[in-house]
Amino acid sequence: MRQLEVALIGAGLIARFHLQEWVDAGVAVRIHSNDGRAAELASEFGARAVGSLAEALNGVDAVDICTPTSTHREIALAAISKGVDVVCEKPLAATAAEAEDIVDAAEQAGVRLYPAHYVRFAPAFARLHDLVASGRMGEGAVARFCFSAYHPRPWTEPISAQSGGILTDQMLHGVDIAYWIFGEVVRVYACYQGEIAAPAPEGTVATGTAVLTHANGAISQVVSRWTATPHPPVRVAFHVSGTGGTVSHDSRWPQQVRVADGLAGDFGYGGTSVFAAEIREFAAAFAGGPEPRLGARDALAAVRLTQAAAESAWTGRAVEVPVKGVAA
After folding, report:
1. How far is CA 172 from each of CA 198, 246, 264, 276, 300, rounded to the nearest angstrom?
2. Residue of 4, 118, 184, 208 with fewest CB within 10 Å of its CB?
3. Worst-scoring range by mean pLDDT, 109-113, 160-164, 261-265?
4. In the Cβ-directed half-sphere of 220, how many Cα atoms lie within 13 Å?
């Protein structure tokens, strides 16, 4: 079987995570980045650095876009125009209009487009999805999804307060999970506190909250936080109740681990990482295997919902989300 080849665009932290997993999956990778870091990253992982986007896209099977959000549309459309399949780090685009441009172009060209929403690949959320889909949770679901992490460096792009800040960045993870598990959303009400406009200072603190009303009657609350310091580390949690029962998860539960030189700052779970599971599922699809658990329309839905959250927070009003086939 011919070796799959992927063009990785970007050389930052997320690009490094993706590159490790592409290499481990046996995929050949060429790297391009405008910041001059591609050669060093390629050398570290045995990949090949190239000097331009055109060279990166020439003859590859897929592109993996790990660049700032404002560049996603241009790179994705360039790949789609050449018939190259696309993986794109979240969010797919800065606005719903740009995201729709990308999705429409991919569908018209018959190009596969997979958003890198890695939280879907966490075992706890995958198990929750299966429980709800099987009907074991019953009816009338009420859910709360919480995400918190340190925002360790200033934003590098000009982002207005109206853009939503944490509501359109970190909150996308929780919104995507809620959408995946409970389906279409018809109403969004959101608010935020703390830093929102760029450039944000080191140690930014912010909290965003959104309440999602789903078309099936379920209610989801999504809470996202940027913490002032890296300790405690990344935390994800959920609590979901329905007429059939309740299920909870909190990533902090097993993390009180002491080591010889003090309290561990972060915790690595055993087994496959979310990035490994994500990239292997994409690689298998590109090689002719089954489709992954999310696709282009999921990416578009997530951007539309986070943009609705930003609008709600800015105006102080709930935002109605039109859904085809669902009465307002």
Report:
1. 18, 24, 28, 20, 11
2. 184
3. 261-265
4. 26
Quickly list H helices, the chain.
13-24, 38-45, 53-57, 72-81, 96-109, 123-133, 171-182, 274-286, 296-315
Q: How far apart are CA 29 and CA 31, in angstroms?
A: 7
Is 90 in contact with 113 (CB distance < 8 Å)?
no
The predicted-structure confidence for 168-183, as pLDDT tens digits, reads as follows 888 999 999 999 999 9
Band the pLDDT of 202: cuts 50, 70, 90: confident
Phi, psi of 215 (to 5 degrees): -65, -25
> What share of the chain has pLDDT > 90, as a percent?
72
Task: Compute the C-alpha angle 60/65/68, nearest 5°.
Answer: 150
Number of H helices and E strands in the chain, helices first, is 9, 15
Q: How far is CA 274 from the centre of its chain?
A: 11
Assigned token pair, 52: 């331009």
Q: For residues 311 and 191, is the Cβ–Cβ distance under 8 A?
A: no
Question: How many whole angstroms separate alpha carbon 19 and alpha carbon 10?
Answer: 10
Res. 47: pLDDT tops 50: yes
Residue type, 234: V
Alpha-carbon gap, residue 113 to 59, rounded angstroms: 17
Per the CB < 8 A criterion, the answer to whether 72 and 30 are in contact is: no
3-class DSSP state for residue 77?
Answer: helix
The continuous run of DSSP H or E covering 101 comes out as helix 96-109
